[in-house]
Design brief:
The chain is α/β, with parallel strands linked by helices. The chain contains 28 helices and 23 strands. Helix 17 crosses helix 28, helix 19 crosses helix 20 and helix 21 runs parallel beside helix 22. The longest helix is centred in the N-terminal third of the chain and has 18 residues.
Length: about 700
Amino acid sequence: MSKGIYVATIEPNSGKSVVVLGLMRMLLGKTAKVGYFRPIIEDTKDDEPDNHINTVVSYFELDINYKKSFAYKRSEVLELYNKGKSGDVIDHIIKKYKYLEERFDIVLVEGTDFSHENSSLELDINMLISKNLGLPVIIVSRGDGGIDISEVVDNVQLAHDTFKGEVDVLSVMTNKANPEDVSKLKTLLNERIQCGTDITVIPKIKSLASPTVKEIVKKLEGSILFGADMVNNQVDNFNVATMQLRNYLNQLKEDCLVITAGDRADIILGALQASVSKNYPKISGIILTGGLLPEDSILKLIEGLSSIVPIISVKGGTFAVANQVGKIKSRIYAENIEKIETSIATFEKHVNTDKLANDLITFESEIFTPRMFQYNLLQRALKQKKHIVLPEGYDERVLRAAARLIDVQVVDLTLIGEANTIKEHIEKLDIPLNIDDISIVSPQKSPYFEDYVNTFYQLRKHKGVNIDMARDAMSDVSYFGTMMIHKGHADGMVSGAVHTTAHTLRPALQFIKTKPDTSIVSSVFFMCLEDRVSVFGDCAINPNPNAEQLAEIAISSAESAKNFGIEPKVAMLSYSSGSSGKGEDVERVREATEIVKAKVPDLKIEGPIQYDAAVDMRIGKSKLPDSEVAGQASVLIFPDLNTGNNTYKAVQRETGALAIGPMLQGLNKPVNDLSRGCTADDIYSTVIITAIQAQDQ
């Protein structure tokens, strides 16, 4: 079952609240613990609570702290976007949503309101949020939003296809349709949207479309003179009273709002009397314009009446006020129980809730975005804080990554180098890193130096190493950092921003050594593509692995994928797919595949297979129709280093994918290598991965 559902509208005044209220009732009928979340709310005056949140939380009595139920106000998002920090917006929204996801069985997420201009940006933001939360979407549109019914269908289809290209669309609900158009509109939408998406058309409900006196008072910033207990009266229409009373009485309609100047005592008293008369319609309220009030004697007379509809005083002129009233759109708010219950009843009447609930229960998303992956990494690393050593303490990228890591308090860090020199670098580069928050050690000044020297000597004397050679080795930052891990003074090491792979890996192979069931050290990159994270191996260590080594790389890579929350579906890559190709290279991949199948029979694996057949469902099914992997591979094993290294770099550069790694596999304790072209972001991610590896070991 999906842990959440996202309700997104594509235009203003779509009646999204009806869908949200109906969904909440449906979900509470399936499970008791339902959460509610709005990623972005409108700006409110004087910190007034968001109306949507207040309505849902209070009516359904949800146990949610108000500040936990949203992530940003609209102005905050726009400010961050203007500063180029859109990624920070998504990261924070994921964090807030995940907090609720952990505490509830399912979370109903309501998108933005489209109450401002720049609807294309708003559409993109809603798609981006739902995609990064991994939630199925219900699209809500207006059934009366076009010049004719064909325009409505065009708008809905365009919105559906746009969302469908990025996220999983569970249902399309076209709301506020003219009752006479409902059947035809549903038929046309089903003809145009033929991909299994459920189509619902909800007719316009007059009582939901009409504003209340309370909404009008708030919009006009009026003051209530009488009838405060009846401000939830519904306003179905309004008219301006300028004629004499005897003529105006004929203009009254049921639930009509009377608009007149504040000095027209005849109209005020006549309208009040007509409202309680059996011979005239009941009015919803009276608005007095111009800031004028009736004389005291008239006010006294009104005050003595047994039943008084709301009488409101506003400052504007009569016709200006009438124009404002005509533009007011109805909202559903917490105090108007009647509208809430009507909304829920309308939803249940027109939506197949049993099917919708079943679709939600059986839904499984295959979308796994880079930001979701990175969030999960950070949360895992935070569960058990590990100590990571960074030997290249003078490098700017290392220092900037260290500042970020300390800021989120995800690891304890040791930098290797002279403390004064590192401090000078931090101050010169204006890096927000407090030197008191990290450990800095210079190898030869360390109290453990002689112990490390003797340990290395004992470990390597059978290889001809003498004590002086051991002392020279321990003066090297890579050897010293690796010895810290060996001795239990650190849990892992990340190096390679300055040093070569061989320089980083050599000491690890000499005394950290490989795991008992592993013969080689290999590597993987986590390739964070737009809608998924793939594991690429081996792209950094082994130039020309034989069949046995290739099989071991595949098994290790599959295990790494599983450990990091990615279901392993392994593609053993080659220049041909299935049994079509011949040649030494293809046979080596085929043999490696058979070795893996024999050692790990439950692992989903396919090989040899071409890259396009491994990742493209259409091509994969055409070439290998019975394969469990073709078209959906998550772990891609390259036949040699030349192919793997070039491919990961090509994918990274051409698609803008984030490549996290390389992460080394097979060592007893985690040591990870960096590319000398790495960024501070690369180092940050690699340290977090190293900390998780240390937890697993």
